[in-house]
Structure formats: C-alpha cells, structure tokens
Amino acid sequence: MVKEISLAEVRGLIGTKTGLSDWILVDQAMIDAFAHATNDHQFIHTDPARATTESSFGGTIAHGFLTLSLLSTMNYNALPKIREQTMGINYGFDKVRFMAPVKSGTRIRGHFVLADARFRGASMLMTTYEVSIEIENEKKPALTANWITIIQFDPKDRPEET
C-alpha cells in the first residue's frame, strides 16, 4: 500500500482498497483494561472460567466497542499519510455492525476501502471508509462499518477541482 499521498490524489482512490493494517493481538489483559476503563465488567469479557461454562463463546470475548476502538490504531498503521494534512478528526460512523465475537487470544486486522471523499469549505476533506475487521482464521468479520473522518489542511493547499 502507498504510504504517503498528496491531497490532490485522494479522490482518485475512491473505490479502492487503501489500507490493510498489521495484526493486533486481543488478549485478556487488553480486554480487562478496556473493562476497567469503561466500567463494563460483564462476565463474558472478564471471567474466563464463567465465560467458558456459562456462555456459548467457549471463553471470554472482547467488547464490541473495544474492537471498534482499535480502528484508530489500525488507521495509523494502514492508511496513507496525506502530506498536506494538519489534523484528522473522527466525525463518526454509519451502519456499525458487530458480526462475530473476537475471542480472547485472537488476532484482528483492519481493511479499509475509500468510499467517498468530498471537500467541505476551504480547508476540510470529508472521507468515508468502508471498514471491516478481520478475525484471523475466521470467515466472518468481527465488524463492518462506514467510518467518516475529516482531514484538515491549510486552505492554500486545496487542489483545484476538475
């Protein structure tokens, strides 16, 4: 994948796979830290013995929101840097779907397809990525979503639209 592009090149990537992240291990320590940070200590996340005997998952699973939040690190790892970008803003998600559980001890990675890129005002580019998070050795993704971000840049760097 391309590691750096210019602002003028972004719109030419619409419809293409623009990033594939490295694998991330989701282990029990990560799940427990997320449970602590969010005060969500449901046993299917934090009690391996009970989750093995009292759930259909065969052990603990990551919180769906933990999986979703890992898109941030996957983004930095996978998507090309835009030379003129001064700041990136997480604008939100459309159609987030948690498709399959992420079991403790498994690895996940993000797939990014640039679905849309539109200039807004003099110094912003709104991008929409179709994202999915693959679970290693599983057919079904952990999640799918449309992720909307805003790229800010100096107005003098805005390319001419054709």
Q: Which features does this protein show?
A:
162 residues, alpha+beta, Thiol Ester Dehydrase, Chain A, six-stranded antiparallel sheet, two-stranded parallel ribbon, 8 strands, elongated, HotDog_dom_sf, Nodulation protein NodN, NodN-like
Explain this structure.
This protein is α+β, with helices and mostly antiparallel strands. The chain has a single domain (4-23, 63-157), classed as Thiol Ester Dehydrase, Chain A (Roll), CATH 3.10.129. Helices cover 22% and strands 39% of the residues. It has helices at 28-38, 43-46, 48-54, 64-69, 71-78, and strands at residues 4-5, 17-20, 24-26, 81-82, 85-98, 106-120, 124-135, 143-153. Strands 2, 3, 5, 6, 7 and 8 form a six-stranded antiparallel β-sheet that branches. A hairpin with a 3-residue loop joins strand 6 and strand 7. The longest helix has 11 residues, at 28-38. The model has no long low-confidence stretch (mean pLDDT 95). This is Nodulation protein NodN. InterPro entries: HotDog_dom_sf, MaoC-like_dom, NodN-like. Residues 13-129 form the MaoC-like domain. It comes from Rhizobium gallicum bv. gallicum R602sp.
